[in-house]
Amino acid sequence: MANHKSAEKRNRQRLKRRERNVFHLSTMRTYMKRLRKALEGGDLEGAKETLPLALQAIGKAASKGVIHRNTASRYASRVRLAFNKKNAPAA
After folding, report:
1. Number of structural domains in the chain
2. Cα→Cα distances 55→22, 31, 90, Å
């Protein structure tokens, strides 16, 4: 338990930051899961709607410092690659 005023404040800040970080991380993961599920189910319309939302959530998580920017770039790349693979016309 914090005994000093400054330690109590740091604890309050930590809790606020953690709550915000968990929100952004959870939102990002949810959109990625929805996109993956739509692609696996063959729902291309649903995937088209979810792709921009997933990319936005990834970018926001990176901009807030929840995930590293290289991690965000990797996630975005993999999401786009999976979408393009399913969306490509059969040759």
Report:
1. 1
2. 17, 9, 25
Q: Give me the pLDDT at residue 90, please.
A: 58
Q: In what helix (H) or strand (E) does residue 50 lie, and over which residues does it extend?
A: helix 44-63
**Distance of alpha carbon 50 from alpha carbon 44, whole angstroms:** 10
Kindly report the number of other CB atoms within 10 A of residue 50's CB atom. Answer: 22
DSSP assigned state of 89: P
Distance of CA 80 to the CA centre of its chain: 14
CATH number for the domain including 58? 1.20.58.110
47 lies in which domain range? 5-86
Q: Rounded mean pLDDT of 41-62?
A: 95
